């Protein structure tokens, strides 16, 4: 098949300033300038990135930065809490300044107080306020040695004592020791602890959250009945004091129970406040989405760091090709390695604005009748989104490392730190493989409605096209020119067919296996080639759909370049699913494969002259990147010029004298 290049123009004129304005808004750019000026006032931020600090020193720097971040947040709080774009820039900054402190701050200023606010009541308000203001540092203690993802089976117990009106916390065995909680190792004075609520008559009411005092705020010594400590050296985020925690008949007052959804009265009766279990579940799922949505932004921040280093480096590094020196950016392999990730960084940058807005509206209206409907859809979006973006960014950073060759291996390039620090995003706030299953499970439950022609209607619009599933499944791939193929609207149509197909196939597979074995095994054996690709395609398509809508507000060169990046993102994602289109009969000739491969290469090639300008628009400021992009900078930064010949001759002399 031949492509008609005349119908497709590879020249895109865009103004970097206009692009910046579209991504961040004027308000956002002003905010960023003020934030950067403010940050430069703190010597701890401008510390020497080349120095290798001891573990204790890393923890000290991170804790100091944490308190600085609270100070900083006070100055910018109003702005970031009312504007999604500013919130995005704030999250980016947090994880550019010092990722370990970013994690500590995320737990102390967000997860800890927001759990109190959303699931606690008036009784918890004072501690919530102190948490928000950084007057106390809190932790979030869910994970245990034996149970992380499978939270329902967590073993820590909180037994109600009617006589004293207290809960008695216990760690029944070593497997039930709380572990990994950020801030627990050294600085947290309070923790939100997940425990099985045991009533006085011995009945277990399931997992509940308790606000638990851990350490004396004056001395930081833990209270009697608590064993607490630091996890030790990790592969990354070593400034964060992840810790462990065990209870031995540790008593806390009755008000410790976060009692918005359920409570225990003075006489020891259990009372549910929300009558519908379904509604309770939907609302709490939506509340838990907050952290995962932030992680999508945090992951994207790591990606923009890594891409900035790799693309700027590529811009100065030449490939020797015979007598001619040509830029690495000309290299097809290089383009294919990095440009799809550049597209991801842009697409997610726009997508995260949408998620922050939706999450904010949801949190403000958790008692709204629609909240359970939004909460459960948001849970699927944030679970699949966090997983797919964390995996994509992990691969993207690795590609950046490979394209920088030996220079990435130098610690001060910053790339190895990005990789090590980012890795934890696949684990905390829900392990990605487990989260992707949760999104798939929700999708699976929708299919019987479709089979019974029962209309589904979800507020965020990620699945409503399934109402037309039978018509969609009848469609075939019938695109004949490249221009049509790369249009995001058309890419979306392929995705919709794919999701309907994978959902139908997954449902049939699970139903068939369920007739011969337990449901758990039926689902378990349908993961790899059915449910996982279903949830991955679902979120990739939703991102494409949302960003395509956002681009309706753009125009001119900005619209052109962003559409090109969105097309590359969409087709690159689609490529991983090609086999399904043939398996399901959507495509029969080799057109789809051919168009896919050619358009990816073509779009990458078209971006080669724009790649550095594009990455500069989303690049973190140099003073936060702390990466040296070239040996030249490294040499210039040395106070004493490094005299290689002198070093060699000294060594030789020494060796000779030893001999
Ligand atoms: C830096 C860092 C900070 C953290 N901070 C906190 C914190 O502040 N508070 C806190 O409570 N926890 C924290 N955690 C812990 C984190 O939340 C857990 O590691 C996470 O929930 C996963 O639980 P797990 O480690 O028990 O692993 P598991 O859930 O046991 O998972 C281990 C492996 O088994 C697989 N697996 C598990 N279940 C299934 C399944 N059903 N189907 C298929 N595969 C499965 C997973 O895919 C994974 O590969 C932190 C972790 C890290 C690394």
From TrEMBL:
Source organism: Aquatica leii
Domain Acyl-CoA oxidase C-alpha1: 287-444
Family: Belongs to the acyl-CoA oxidase family.
Pfam short name (any one): ACOX
Record keyword Cytoplasm present: no
Boundaries of every Acyl-CoA oxidase/dehydrogenase middle domain copy: 139-249
Any one GO CC term of the record: peroxisome
GO biological process: fatty acid beta-oxidation using acyl-CoA oxidase; lipid homeostasis
Gene Ontology MF terms: FAD binding; fatty acid binding; pristanoyl-CoA oxidase activity
Upper classification of the organism: Eukaryota, Metazoa, Ecdysozoa, Arthropoda, Hexapoda
Domain Acyl-CoA oxidase C-terminal: 488-627
UniProt binding sites for FAD: 143, 182
Gene3D superfamilies: Butyryl-CoA Dehydrogenase, subunit A, domain 2 (2.40.110.10), Butyryl-CoA Dehydrogenase, subunit A, domain 3 (1.20.140.10)
Name listed for the protein in its UniProt record: Acyl-coenzyme A oxidase
Active-site residues, record numbering mapped to chain: 429 (proton acceptor)
